[in-house]
Amino acid sequence: MLEALVAGKPNDLENAARATFATLDDQPAPVRHDQGGTHEPADRYLRVLRASRIIAATDAYAQAVVALLAERGVEATAWQVRVDPALGADQVMALRTTVDGQDALVPLHPHATTLRAFPVDTPVDLTGVAPLAVIDLPTTAAWTDTATAATALAARTG
Fold it and tell me: Which candidate, 119, 120, 122, 111, places its Cα nearest to that of 144?
């Protein structure tokens, strides 16, 4: 699905991210077992399902930011997941680009009011890792649109 959306359609990607975020805590259907009965999914399954939805949503969000940066001539790619404690305990997609002249990973979450850039050779969990840069986003909204994130990043790339 993402491949079809990436080709110059950042709005579609952002809408996909919004739709996925809206379903983060939706409960799956009861599970049927061999004896013909049903039971509720296990807590572990629900945690994994929620985590995968967050990764999928932030991946679509990151792909939208990448597309918007590309329109501005900025090289970036959705890279790998990271846990930025400033964004919570969830793994989110990180964008790889150049920030203030340094190769950096920027974990992206649509509820963020700042972006933090980290060295690319960091562990998945960024607790205790000093950021290379902190970029304030001009928003107080519950959802930071991808255009706002891309504009703020573009101002610091190069």
Answer: 111
Structure tokens given for 70: 């590309």
Q: Domain residue spans in the chain?
A: 2-25+37-154
pLDDT for 139 beyond 80: no
CA 118 vs CA 14, 18, 40, 101, 126: distances in Å: 24, 25, 40, 12, 8
Higher per-residue pLDDT: 41 or 103? 103
Tokens representing 54 are 């967050």
Q: Residue 91 half-sphere exposure, CB side, CA atoms within 13 Å?
A: 17
Q: Report pLDDT for 33.
A: 80
The whole-angstrom separation of Cα 148 and Cα 24 is 23
Parallel, antiparallel or unpaired: strands 31-32 and 38-39: antiparallel
Segment 42-51 long-range contacts (CB within 8 Å, at least 24 positions apart): 50/24, 50/25, 51/90, 51/91
Q: Is the pLDDT of residue 101 over 90?
A: yes
